[in-house]
Specification:
Helix content is 39%, strand content 24%. The protein is an alpha+beta fold and 135 residues long.
Length: 135
């Protein structure tokens, strides 16, 4: 009895996929990433992206859509950015290659010699709707 109640509750709260009719069949895979910087490390995180990470993303086929900071809440410790990939399998391969890249390993280690720059990473994978101007 308890197990069936648990299963029913889990199914009721599980996210449901978007209706197939609303998805663009030719959509790329988009990834919205939100980084919460360690206290006092946001400027160093911006520098790492500006000077190294963006170029490494391009090297590994990760298209940068844009970088943003919140206007209000989180402006002192948050970086938000979006990447695009041909599909989600390409995303997985790109991140695997990026993380293994000796240049990235060196950049990360050098930039974090005085402590980690990022406390938390949130990632959301997205597909465009059929009415989205960006696919």
């Amino acid at each position: 009895m308890m197990w069936s109640l648990f299963l029913a509750a889990a199914l009721a709260t599980a996210p449901s996929p978007a209706p197939a009719g609303s998805l663009a069949p030719d959509s790329r895979c988009f990834e919205l990433r939100t980084y919460t910087a360690a206290p006092g490390k946001l400027d160093a995180l911006h520098a790492r992206f500006r000077d190294h990470t963006s170029g490494l993303f391009r090297k590994h086929g990760m298209a940068v859509v844009g970088y943003w900071v919140p206007k209000d809440k989180g402006a002192d410790n948050t970086l938000v950015y979006m990447l695009a990939y041909p599909d989600c399998a390409a995303r997985d391969k790109a991140w695997e290659a990026f993380r293994a890249d000796p240049e990235w390993v060196q950049v990360r280690e050098a930039s974090e010699k005085d402590g980690k720059l990022v406390e938390k990473v949130d990632s959301v994978l997205m597909k465009a709707t059929d009415y989205s101007p960006l696919k």
